[in-house]
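User: Reviewer 2 asked us to show a designed sequence for the structure in our supplementary figure. I'm pasting the structure tokens here. Could you produce the per-position amino acids so we can include them in the response letter?
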């Protein structure tokens, strides 16, 4: 029962990493689109692509938090009492990002539009970075089982910084592929080329960081390195294959195939992390069974989670289908 709850938790983590990551990556391209005139077209496409779905993706974050604090309360307490600084900064970034995205559509003064746009774009970069440092701190075993670990070195360390940079890079890559597909769907050759070039550049940069990260993990997070090069290796290779295929097919593949390959590239590497870390919740210690809530709680949580997935997944699928078919008003 505890392992099943952990798997469901990680399904939520993967869904948020992929879907929320695409949203954050779109903000990265909003930030780097250039001045008001030069970046108008790309920002308009980003707004059109995000408007119907950006709020819905945070459902997965809430799902993960509920699963963690209910199913594994000791792990939740350990993480929150150790990594409260990056988690707090990430939460602040989520709030600022949402406010900026919402208000920049209604303010009329140029200076206000620039301020809200900058808030949205900047927080779209810092939020995945800090979430990546949290993942790095957990994966490298820097969160003590009884909590109250070092509030600085738990996330300011080589593995955490690598996780933060990779999170930003992967989000930017997924978003660039998604927006390339979106521009192709809208028959906008100029924007398709703009985002395609950035997807290619981001893939090269993120791949270089990942290769450099091999040495970092070997030196700083030995168990994670062993797991990723052992039983997690097939998933890492699938991730790399999906990423390379999406880049190779950017010029000619159907938009849905490109999006599926980008999702595969991001999702399988997250799953690979979970496989490499199993059976520990905190990277190198605290087994799933040791951190689990009582069986009665897990049974109730499993029923509630199953009901939630049965309701949420079809609803979100319908939302995406309606958006892709152009049935939602995003003006």
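Assistant: Here is a per-position design you can include in the supplement:
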């Amino acid at each position: 029962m505890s392992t099943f709850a952990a798997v469901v938790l990680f399904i939520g983590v993967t869904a948020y990493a992929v879907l929320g990551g695409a949203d954050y990556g779109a903000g990265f391209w909003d930030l780097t689109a250039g001045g008001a005139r030069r970046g108008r077209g790309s920002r308009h496409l980003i707004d059109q692509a995000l408007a119907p779905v950006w709020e819905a993706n945070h459902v997965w974050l809430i799902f993960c938090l509920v699963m963690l604090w209910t199913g594994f309360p000791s792990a939740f307490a350990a993480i929150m009492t150790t990594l409260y600084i990056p988690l707090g900064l990430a939460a602040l970034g989520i709030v600022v990002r949402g406010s900026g995205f919402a208000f920049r559509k209604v303010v009329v003064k140029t200076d206000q539009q620039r301020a809200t746009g900058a808030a949205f774009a900047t927080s779209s970069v810092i939020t995945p970075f800090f979430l990546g440092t949290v993942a790095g701190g957990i994966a490298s075993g820097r969160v003590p089982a009884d909590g109250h670990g070092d509030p600085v070195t738990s996330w300011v360390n080589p593995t955490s910084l690598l996780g933060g940079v990779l999170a930003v890079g992967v989000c930017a890559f997924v978003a660039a592929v998604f927006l390339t597909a979106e521009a192709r769907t809208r028959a906008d050759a100029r924007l398709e080329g703009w985002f395609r070039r950035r997807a290619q550049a981001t893939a090269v940069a993120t791949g270089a960081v990942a290769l450099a990260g091999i040495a970092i993990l070997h030196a700083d997070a030995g168990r994670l390195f062993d797991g990723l090069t052992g039983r997690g290796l097939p998933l890492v290779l699938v991730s790399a294959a999906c990423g390379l295929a999406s880049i190779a097919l950017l010029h000619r593949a159907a938009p849905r195939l490109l999006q599926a390959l980008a999702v595969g590239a991001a999702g399988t590497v997250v799953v690979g992390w979970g496989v490499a870390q199993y059976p520990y919740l905190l990277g190198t210690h605290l087994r799933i069974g040791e951190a689990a809530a009582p069986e009665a709680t897990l049974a109730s949580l499993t029923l509630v989670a199953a009901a939630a997935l049965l309701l949420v997944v079809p609803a979100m699928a319908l939302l995406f289908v309606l958006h892709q078919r152009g049935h939602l008003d995003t003006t």
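For the response letter, you might also mention the following. The radius of gyration is 20 Å. The chain is about 75% helix and 0% strand.
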